[in-house]
Design goal:
It is a single chain. The chain is of the alpha+beta class. Helices cover about 60% and strands about 15% of the residues. A hairpin with a 4-residue loop joins strand 9 and strand 10. The protein is elongated. The relative contact order is 0.05.
Length: about 375
């Protein structure tokens, strides 16, 4: 038996190989026992707590720490053996790549959870969380690029040359894709500044619609007529955007005109009629109603009121009720609405004057 254990293969005895295998199998077995006996209990305990931080820590331990430990155990077993310089280098590179991979994934997950926690505490947090895809793409790209640079540095490569190459390449790419990068940075402005969000109804110059999607380069609206409008993020941040979703109430101003033949008593009644109608409605606040001015063909009354709702349909319902009641009250009091009219007064001509004079003399 000793002869078998002392046999040498590739600079290592059979006993060395068995010890290395024992280290690997024993370490993996201990990790399995830890996951089944301890980690499950920790997970059940975390589910009973109010905070989500312990849940995240246990998930990170299960998804990233334990797999990384598996590779470290394998590396420990292999390190026990006497390897050639080339094989030892390959093992170290492989382990460095694997460990870096899990560390970067852990950092990316921490960044995502941090953003979700920050955004989730804001108003309409659930809707905002759905928009994290674009920002996470940028964050992940940054994390992986930095991680790759550190990995190459640890592996002995000249990182300065790589960074210089990336810098020159980055300048060339930036010059070639100015518009794309501009939209990308404006996406970050929209994400953090929040001038509008998914579900908001906005108006941009002569374009209007409900925000359906906010992407890295474009934002998509669903117009009132049904088609999809695709706008560059740069256009949105450079323009004046009217966001009707955040309107708390609507201010309405309207004018009506009555004919000049209206009596003084009726003119005094008109503001009182409008005031009584608006005051009788729930969710409507009167600001003012006045006899404003003398028009070309009418006496003009101006009224301003507020609908205590941002919904357009609610505003139109209230406006319709007010219009119908004004029409009804004016009919009852025989107050006439004015419309464009023009009176023409004709002076008698010279011939008509002579004819009237001859007729008068003949009658005498």
């Amino acid at each position: 038996m000793e002869d078998f254990l002392n046999r040498v293969y590739y600079n290592n005895t059979v006993q060395d190989y068995l010890i290395a295998a024992g280290i690997v199998l024993g370490g993996i077995l201990l990790l399995r026992l830890f996951r089944k006996l301890i980690l499950i209990r920790l997970r059940k305990w975390a589910e009973r707590t109010e905070t989500r931080l312990d849940n995240f820590a246990i998930d990170a331990l299960d998804k990233f720490a334990l797999p990384a430990l598996n590779f470290l155990i394998i590396y420990a077993g292999i390190s026990y053996l006497e390897l050639s310089e080339e094989a030892n280098k390959i093992v170290k590179v492989a382990v460095a790549i694997v460990i870096t991979f899990f560390i970067l994934r852990l950092i990316s997950t921490i960044a995502l959870q941090g953003l979700k926690s920050y955004v989730g505490r804001q108003e309409q947090g659930e809707e905002k969380i759905k928009q994290l895809g674009g920002i996470m793409l940028i964050i992940n790209a940054t994390i992986w690029i930095i991680g790759a640079i550190f990995l190459f540095d640890n592996l002995g490569y000249n990182v300065g040359t790589i960074i210089a190459g990336l810098g020159i390449g980055g300048i060339a790419i930036a010059l070639a894709a100015q518009n794309i990068l501009g939209d990308l940075f404006n996406y970050l402005v929209i994400f953090f500044d929040r001038p509008f969000e998914i579900g908001d109804f906005i108006i941009l110059d002569d374009k209007m619609g409900t925000v359906e999607y906010i992407g890295i380069k474009t934002t998509r609206l669903k117009s009132l007529s049904g088609e999809q409008l695709i706008l560059a993020n740069s256009d949105l941040t450079k323009s004046r955007v009217h966001n009707y979703k955040r309107m708390q109430r609507r201010r309405i101003q309207f004018e009506i005109g009555v004919v000049y033949q209206t009596t003084m008593e009726q003119v005094k009644e008109v503001p009182l009629i409008i005031k009584d109608i608006i005051d009788s409605l729930d969710g409507v606040t009167l600001d003012r109603t006045h006899f404003k001015s003398y028009g070309d063909f009418s006496l003009i009354f101006q009224t301003v009121y507020f609908v205590e709702s941002a919904e357009y349909n609610v505003f139109m319902d209230k406006q319709q009720i007010i219009n119908l009641r004004i029409y009804e009250e004016f009919q009852k009091r025989k107050i006439e609405f004015a419309y464009p009219t023009q009176s023409i007064f004709l002076a008698p001509t010279h011939k008509e004057n002579n004819k009237e004079q001859l007729v008068g003399e003949h009658n005498r």
